[in-house]
Amino acid sequence: MRARRVITVVGCHAEGEVGDVIVGGVLAPAGRTLYEQMQTMRRDHDDIRRLLLCEPRGSVARHVNLLVPPIDRDCQVGAIIMEPTEYVPSSGSNLICIATVLLETGIVAMHEPETIVGIEVPGGPVKVRARCSDGRCLEVEIENVPAFVDRLDAPLEVAGLGTITVDVAYGGMFYAILDGTRLGFRVAADEARELAVLGEKVRFAAREQLTVVHPANPAIRDVSIVQINRPFAGVGEVTTNTCIVAPGRSDRSPTGTGTAARMAVLRARGLMNVGDTMRHASLIGSTFRGRIVADTRVGDRAAIVPAIAGRAWITGFHQYVLDPDDPYPQGYVLNDTWGVTGSLTQ
Hints:
The chain is α+β, with helices and mostly antiparallel strands. It has two domains: 5-143 and 313-322, Diaminopimelate Epimerase, Chain A, domain 1; 147-307, Roll (Diaminopimelate Epimerase, Chain A, domain 1). Helix content is 18%, strand content 41%. The protein has helices at residues 34-44, 46-53, 92-104, 192-209, 256-268; strands at residues 5-14, 17-24, 62-68, 77-82, 87-88, 114-121, 124-133, 136-143, 147-158, 162-170, 174-179, 223-229, 238-245, 249-250, 277-281, 287-298, 301-310, 312-322. An eight-stranded mixed barrel has the order 9-10-11-12-13-15-16-17.
């Protein structure tokens, strides 16, 4: 075997969404902060993301996370999150995968019945609380970066639909959130393709028509993802949603940052209070439990501290090899399988 490089990855999924973790073969990128390291990765080392996410090694339904030393002294590990079209400040399903891999492989010592770990992501430090038994993470709850509403009931002109209204909120990335039932959808698994097409239309429109900027970090901007949901079923009840991950496919999990963003909207509308919980369900029936931990502020915005709880499972241990003669060192995509739009960037 000849290899230009070998990358070691632990496979994992959180309630259906793949969030694999790189544990060897890739060094931490340069940068004074995790956000700067993420920018360096995107600018100078994007071949890693493409190698692992594109065919023939990956797919559009996969994320990959790079473990790096933390900058924040209260955290034990840092992580850079790589998705099909972007690098994101935070991700609930990926953090649940990262925590599970850290503890179940012994990278971080597991303590039963509960292990608390600080994980730093580009969006900030995240507190992770894992319920553990017999060497297994039974459930992982992440106290995520603050979530807040950017605007409610924003009018949006969408091709083929006319004017619709969306809520825009941040839960670790910016979301455009809409009630799918108002457009005739049940938000069900057999509508997945049509929901993906709708989500990409809304994302394109939102990025063109709505100026969205994080008040504490102007580099975090623009709508990244679209959440299509059913009406809120009430505190403690299960509400179905799907988040359309660019370039156009449903998140298989209920989406952690999407749950955080939606709780920020529900708090702003007076439908949830501090201490309340909700359960978000995905199109495949998996669920995350969301909880509003506290009120806070981000710049001049009212915000919440959200917690999201779910389960993850390790799926395998892999070593990916790049042969020097491989004609596709950064992989390739075709839009028959790579989402709706077939794009590699936002």
